[in-house]
Amino acid sequence: MNAKGKLGEECAANFLEAKGYSIVARNFRIRSAEIDIIAKVDNVIVFVEVKARSNIRHGLPSEAVTLRKQKKIIEAASIFLQDFPDYACRFDVMEVYLTGERVKEVNHIENAFEVS
From its phi and psi, is residue 33 left (phi > 0), alpha (psi between -120 and 50) or beta? Predict the structure, then answer.
């Protein structure tokens, strides 16, 4: 992972904790997919994909979470949820906008996508 991605994930985790979420796991990986952050709030497990960008020349960060990427996240989430059968879940995307090595803005998109 590059420095921008690492900074983005750190910022996203701090942002979630400040909103009362507890971080359950980071960089949860199965053979073909990775989930950046897994958090818990109330009785909900939240799977978070973090996208950090310094500009939007190539589109919004959330637009990089393609249908293919969503399917991979859902696949990894289903494996993770085997240990949490009584929890609801949702899929969020966090856009982290950077200026150099400083965070300019964080956009937390709750329920960014669903299992179809």
Answer: beta
For 96, the token pair is 């982290």
Would you tell me how many other CB atoms lie within 10 Å of the CB of residue 15? 18
d(C-alpha 70, C-alpha 72), whole Å: 5
Domain ranges for the chain: 3-113
Q: At 64, phi and psi to the nearest 5?
A: -80, -5
Per-residue pLDDT for 13 more than 90? yes
Task: Decide yes or no: CATH 3.30.230.10 for domain 3-113.
Answer: no
Q: Is residue 1 scored above 70 in pLDDT? A: no
pLDDT at position 70 is 96
Give 63-72 pLDDT, tens digit per residue: 999 999 999 9
**88-99 and 44-53 strand pairing:** parallel
Cβ count near 47 (within 10 Å): 25
